[in-house]
Fold:
Amino acid sequence: NAGVTQTPKFQVLKTGQSMTLQCAQDMNHEYMSWYRQDPGMGLRLIHYSVGAGITDQGEVPNGYNVSRSTTEDFPLRLLSAAPSQTSVYFCASSRQWNTEAFFGQGTRLTVV
Amino acid sequence: AQTVTQSQPEMSVQEAETVTLSCTYDTSESDYYLFWYKQPPSRQMILVIRQEAYKQQNATENRFSVNFQKAAKSFSLKISDSQLGDAAMYFCAYRGAYYGGATNKLIFGTGTLLAVQP
Structure:
């Protein structure tokens, strides 16, 4: 039982490049979400999903896309990377939307 | 909108001593959940303790306990017998108890960095 797995752990992008951060969970959780962590700002919600085929925007969705074709996977796409997207990204899942959230180990993304 | 405030950016405690981390929140909801998460240098977010607002009894997990004051909207974390492995960033978080709108998300404070001195 691996829990929540994020890949890659580190990534450097050039401005304008696109990429996908992968997130997979093996706990059959319905609720998944993406956060970004910036110094002095805690974690802020980017997008979330309450089940396969259902996604919605969080607090800071601009510049990011998500999809949820399966219960297990919830990838986060950066469409055209900008330096303002330099951050640590966390994927989380929970059995229901209001139960304990389990986090992946995070992806440190640098956009130059 | 709900907010979570952690007014102590950094704290320090001697090994084996007790430390209390503060957290206040603002909400108009009557039912909700509160959490403390620990983030060690490994970056992993680890749930330390959870409190349901409808429960008057303070949650306890081994050396970790909370002082939940609903009327004052305060949710402090007490770490007893501090150990070197407790050194980490600690985040207080809020989540509404009813599905819909802004309360779907975990709302985090800005964190308190705890150092444990040997």
Observations:
- Residues 38 and 59 of chain A are 14 Å apart (CA to CA).
- Chain A touches chain B at residues 33, 35, 40-45, 48, 50, 56, 58-59, 88, 90, 92, 97-98, 100-103, 105-106, 108 (CB under 8 Å).
- Chain A has a mean pLDDT of 93.
